[in-house]
Amino acid sequence: MAEFVRRTTTPVSPRALYDWHASGGAFSRLAPPWESIEVQSWRGGVATQDQHVANQYGDISTGATITLRTAIGPIGTTMIARHVDHREGELFVDEMIKGPFAAWRHEHRFLPGPDGTSVLEDHIDYKLPLGPLGAAFGGRFAQKKLEAMFTFRHRRTTQDLDRHKQFEDQPRMTIAVSGASGLVGRQLCAFLRGGGHRVRPLVRRAPAPHADEIRWDPAAGTVDAEALEGTDAIIHLAGESIMGRWTAAKRERIVRSRVQGTRTIAEAAAAMKKKPAVILSTSAIGIYGDRGDQVLTEGDDQGGSGFLADTCRQWEAAMDPARDAGVRVVHPRLGVVLSGQGGALAKMLPAFQLGVGGPIGGGRQWMSWIGLDDLIGIFHHALFTPSLDGPVNAVAPSPVRNGDYGRTLGRVLWRPALAPLPRPVVSAVMGQMGRELLLFSANVSAETLTGSGFRFLTPDLEETLRQELGRF
Q: What is the pTM of this model?
């Protein structure tokens, strides 16, 4: 049997570290974003009898069984693991009963550290298939994969615990979230649950039993007002994807989904008996339009033109009913979100991995970006920071030119990044969407965030890309 061990000191007690792993958000937070991992089922053990709850939020008690669909290179495979031991506050153990390894046993240990801290220890004993042949040819590859995976897992665990510790004196909140199943929403909900908050997703279908969901229909302008009562905060992420050619019908869906959905949330919040303390309603830096080298602060939003700029202004204004009712409303204006799980980075990867990526439209336009983990931190910070009110640029403090972005991504992937994509090709192939998303220049400032005390975890582009792609 081969062995892998990773130990990291965390800033909380062993019990708090265990509670984070048992919170229901840990599995989503620990899945490496560069890996293809899909939970097909999670059957509850002795502690969780409701199978929907086990499948939705996870269960680490003895007898719990998880079925995953993952991939080794281009080959998909199923892995089934069962929790075989569990000592509350101390450890839990899972073993593979089906999957790509000949054997796999993973002990998650939570040990006392100095001065009230704890030591997270992951101890894995495993055996590769094909006996000595598999060990000879695959042993180094397996160790390298485990090194990257657990570097990421321990880093994210510590970062999440640090984020929650900053506001440990604040009461835990009940938070309604629209768009909870999207790229940002999935990770944000998992993060919030890891901090002990109650998350209530807004769903368009009938709520599932025991799932703590709230029914809404943004197209009809309705939301279950009774279920919404008791909510301390609302995070509104939902909206039609802006990806795809912007036909007239597509543009109408983009605007309608944002304006009608936002107004539905705003009017419902304004009518609540006890109004939420805060609503975080997303917007985007598209509101600034194409502004060349000008450094853009939140007050520069009236000078932008284009479809996205017009849409963002309508989008933010749709929250006026809640604002007029005295609710603190924050509009995080999202930059280009970088995540190995999807979005812009995932769409760029194939070309760069093949060595045919490079500058777009000359590469001089500014790209204001944000790593997914820092974006989640921004939402969390805004929940507990009363000084943040109105629009806030949700971007890293180090925007880059498009050409520099391409060179950095190429360096992280060990690939050349010299193949240009000329402006006429962008316009011909992608139309207005390509022009506004890829060719517009927005050098957006993060000073409002940093001035409010927010601390970026990965303010550097290369560091962010390495964390999201597992290239440590």
A: 0.95
Write down which residue in 139, 166, 193 finishes a domain: 166
Q: In angstroms, rounded to a whole number, what is the distance separating the alpha carbons of residues 304 and 290?
A: 7
Say whether pLDDT at 34 is over 70: yes
Asked if residue 88 lies in contact with residue 61, where contact means CB atoms within 8 angstroms, the answer is no
Q: How many domains does the chain have?
A: 2
- Which residue, of 109, 141, 166, is where some domain finishes? 166
What pLDDT score was predicted for residue 246? 94
CA 235 to chain centre: 14
Domain hosting residue 87, numbered range: 2-166
- From CA 466, how far away is CA 472, in angstroms rounded? 6
| Pair of tokens at residue 346 | 């995932």
What are φ and ψ of residue 442, in 5° steps? -140, 105
Instruction: Convert the pLDDT of each residue in 277-329 to its tens digit.
Output: 999 999 999 999 999 999 999 999 988 899 999 999 999 999 999 999 999 99
Residue 172 in contact with residue 194, Cβ under 8 Å?
no
Among candidates 230, 211, 214, which has minimal Cα distance to 222?
214
| pLDDT tens-digit map of 85-109 | 999 999 999 999 999 899 999 999 9
- Measured CA to CA in angstroms, residue 446 lies from 309, 335, 345, 367, 389 at distances of 19, 10, 21, 13, 15
